[in-house]
Each structure stands twice: as structure tokens, then as C-alpha cells.
Amino acid sequence: MTDGPPILWCSQEGHALARKILSNKPYVPHDYQIDGVVHTLDHEHLVAVTPTGSGKSGYHAMPMQILLAIANDPCIISPYSYHVPKHPKALLIYPTNALEEQQAENLNKLGVPAIAINSNILHTERTAGRDPWKCAHSDEVAALCLSPEQLTTKEFERLLNDEGFVKNICLWGIDEIHFIESWGTQDVIEDAAAEDPPTPARFAEWRSVWRKCTQLEKAFWDMAMNLS
């Protein structure tokens, strides 16, 4: 972090800086992608409603590319400043295993080290004597792609109890957010706590997470109705 004034990414200078940092990537971002990315970097919630094939995955990849670039060289945003942890991380949720694995592969191709964890991958990796959850704690992983059922596991709870991991989370993303209703909310929280109740603080944190998810889902449907 440099000693200059904080960068406001939604400003004209912020837009230009985001484009500059992404200029060496193998694609040219659309204006509407940059508009969304800078809001994310300004710590605002973003709901992206765009056509299929329009680059929605960029809303996960591009902020992380920018954050990783700044973490590697804070001087690239001089004369401005912006706090980025040494090992920025994204926590990304996908509704299907195929989509999750595809996006993890795409993120790796774009220079964002990512792993996917779902029931199929866990079975394959554990059969081979490897533990994907151990990799998730590693500083080498910048994006953790999860299937919804992994959110109720003890391994994920341990991840949330890892202060070193949590303090590095810079981006929380949910793909195909309109599927959240089918995941369930209150039932998921209660089922997760049924066998081995977490601490009151952890239970409250889960309620907060799902509340944010459902707020985002409501925002999605409100926007969809306004566009119809």
C-alpha cells in the first residue's frame, strides 16, 4: 500500500486505472464489465444481469486479477493507495459441479490460481491420498470455487475459523444467483447445526451470510422485474 490518497475506483481515474491494470490480459473488457468491477473494488454489492455469453464470469476474474496485481506491486496504482492483503482470495459459489469446475479452469487460465471442491472432486482426490481442503487454506490458492452443499460441511466451517484465510477474503461471489431459493436458507442453517452445533458466533455468522445471499437474490428479481 502506497502513502497516497485512497483510490475511488468508480471515479474516472479509477476506471482508467482498472483498464490499465487489465491491459496486458488476453481480452479487452467491455465497458459494462469495468463498470461492475470498479463497484466491486469499492466494496459495493453487485448483481450482474447480462445475456448468456456476455462475460459474467469476468465479474469474478477481473477484480481478482486487479487485486493480485496490486498485491504483487502496490506501486502500480501510484499516486493512489488501496489496501490489498498479501494473499487476496475469492470465495465463489456455483450451482452445478460442471460449471464450478469449468470456471475454476478458466480462472487458472486467466492467472487467478483456483481450485474447485465438490463431492466428485473430494472422492477422486481423497482416493489419491490428497486433501483439497488443505489446499484451500494455502496462500497459493487465490480463488476457492465451491458447490452449495460444501457450505454445510465441517471442513468449510473450519475454513471460516481460519483467521488467516478469512482476513484475506476480498471477494464473495455467487453464480446463477436465482438458484439460491432452491438451495434453501433457514433449513440449510438449521440442518448444518443439527449434528454438531457450532458456536453461537459461528451460527450468527451463517445467518448473516444467508441473509446477504437472500438480499442479493431479492435484488436480482427486483432488477429483473424492472427490466421486463
TrEMBL record:
Pfam families for the chain: DEAD (PF00270)
Domain DEAD/DEAH-box helicase, first and last residues per copy: 33-194
InterPro entries in the record: DEAD/DEAH_box_helicase_dom (IPR011545), Haem_Oase-like_multi-hlx (IPR016084), P-loop_NTPase (IPR027417)
GO molecular function per UniProt: ATP binding; nucleic acid binding
Annotated signal peptide: none
UniProt protein name: DEAD/DEAH-box helicase domain-containing protein
